[in-house]
């Protein structure tokens, strides 16, 4: 073979290797079936080795998996009654099919506007308090006295472990018209006693105060954990540049915990229509129902009190679908702004 032929052959091979062919673009479709089977077998073995290596971690996830299967996924089969006129004595198989009649009834219901307004209002007011746990975590992070810091953390964590019955009862006693502490102070200074628990003007304010007091300490734990993972060399570099504690917090701490803030905010948006039943139910009465009645209490009233199981299920399904859409939308919006999101 001449020198020219050898050079030509080398150039042809180089060109073939440098230009992607159709087979390369198609990927696995034109690969040898035996090679694909071998690759899958290798991946399975790698997965099994990883599971065996971390078997104790997988065992720890079993209770959570069982909980979600039993109380979250399996009950989804019962959502079919939202499209039926469910009768307990007929069962799911024997109950007549009504299609979307319950959903049409929900949207034409006179109370739908009130329920949506109250739910969104309470969610919006609760969102305004979202920065408070962050501020508390930042404040606790600046405390150098461990003894004082431990006392403060204990005080702000305790309300989380109280049931809503206890929390509402405490506020009922404090805000009582007859011998409540707040009204006694108002009366001492010559003011008129206020019916806090039955006055609609105070209903939402009391709700937000109770919700914030109970949850601010527990919510700050996540932010405190995120703050402890911030690289200390960043603070040292900021100090060398002349940054004070406020500048370090603003330019180092907050950017470092921003992914955590975004993740929790996305999850909070997903709970827009799922504020919680127990708290609202306990502080609602005939005088303030029109400003506190939400989808959760409406479902309870329709399903348990009135026995309208299909209609109550339709309302719950509507609430869940809206929450799912909001989570997906908030996650996409977060990614659009350059954040990681939750998936």
Do you know the CATH topology of the largest domain? MetI-like fold
The parts where pLDDT drops under 50 for at least 5 residues are 1-8, 14-28
Reading the helices and strands in chain order gives HHHHHHHHHHHHHHHHHHH
Q: Supply the helix-strand structural class.
A: mainly alpha
Description:
- The protein is mainly alpha-helical and 343 residues long.
- The chain has helices at residues 3-18, 22-26, 33-53, 55-73, 91-94, 101-108, 112-128, 131-142, 146-157, 164-174, 181-188, 200-228, 232-240, 245-256, 258-270, 277-283, 289-292, 295-305, 309-336.
- Helix 6 (101-108) crosses helix 19, helix 9 packs across helix 12 and helix 18 runs antiparallel to helix 19 (309-336).
- It is flat and about 60 Å long.
- Mean pLDDT is 85; it is low at 1-8 and 14-28.
In brief:
The chain is an all-alpha fold and 343 residues long. The protein is 72% helix and 0% strand. Helix 6 packs across helix 19 and helix 8 packs across helix 12.
Descriptive labels:
disordered N terminus, 19 helices, MetI-like fold, flat, mainly alpha, 3 domains, 343 residues
Task: Summarize the helices and strands and which ones pair or pack.
Blueprint: H1 3-18, H2 22-26, H3 33-53, H4 55-73, H5 91-94, H6 101-108, H7 112-128, H8 131-142, H9 146-157, H10 164-174, H11 181-188, H12 200-228, H13 232-240, H14 245-256, H15 258-270, H16 277-283, H17 289-292, H18 295-305, H19 309-336
């Amino acid at each position: 073979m001449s020198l020219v032929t050898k050079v030509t052959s080398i150039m042809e091979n180089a060109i073939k290797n440098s230009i992607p062919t159709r087979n390369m673009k198609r990927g696995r479709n034109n690969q040898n079936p035996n090679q694909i089977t071998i690759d899958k077998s290798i991946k399975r073995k790698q997965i099994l080795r990883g599971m065996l290596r971390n078997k104790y971690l997988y065992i720890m996830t079993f209770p959570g998996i069982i909980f979600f299967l039993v109380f979250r996924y399996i009950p989804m089969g019962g959502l079919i009654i939202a499209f039926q006129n469910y009768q307990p004595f007929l069962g799911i198989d024997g109950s007549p099919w009504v299609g979307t009649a319950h959903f049409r009834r929900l949207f034409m219901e006179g109370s739908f506007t009130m329920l949506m307004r109250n739910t969104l209002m309470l969610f919006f007011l609760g969102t305004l308090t979202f920065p408070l746990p962050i501020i508390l975590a930042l404040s606790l992070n600046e405390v150098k006295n461990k003894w004082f810091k431990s006392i403060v953390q204990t005080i702000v964590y305790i309300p989380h472990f109280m049931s809503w019955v206890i929390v509402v009862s405490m506020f009922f006693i404090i805000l009582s018209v007859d011998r409540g502490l707040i009204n006694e102070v108002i009366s001492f200074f010559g003011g008129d006693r206020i019916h806090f628990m039955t006055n609609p003007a105070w209903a939402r304010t009391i709700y937000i105060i109770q919700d914030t007091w109970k949850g601010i300490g527990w919510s700050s734990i996540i932010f405190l954990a995120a703050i402890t993972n911030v690289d200390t060399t960043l603070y040292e570099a900021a100090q060398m540049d002349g940054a004070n504690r406020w500048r370090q917090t603003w330019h180092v701490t907050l950017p470092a915990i921003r992914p955590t803030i975004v993740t929790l905010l996305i999850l909070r948006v997903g709970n827009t229509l799922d504020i919680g039943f127990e708290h609202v139910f306990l502080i609602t009465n005939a005088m303030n129902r029109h400003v506190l009645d939400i989808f959760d209490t409406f479902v309870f009233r329709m399903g348990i009190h009135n026995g309208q199981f299909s209609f109550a299920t339709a309302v719950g399904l509507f609430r869940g679908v809206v929450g799912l859409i909001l989570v997906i939308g908030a996650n996409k919006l977060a990614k659009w702004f350059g954040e990681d999101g939750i998936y």
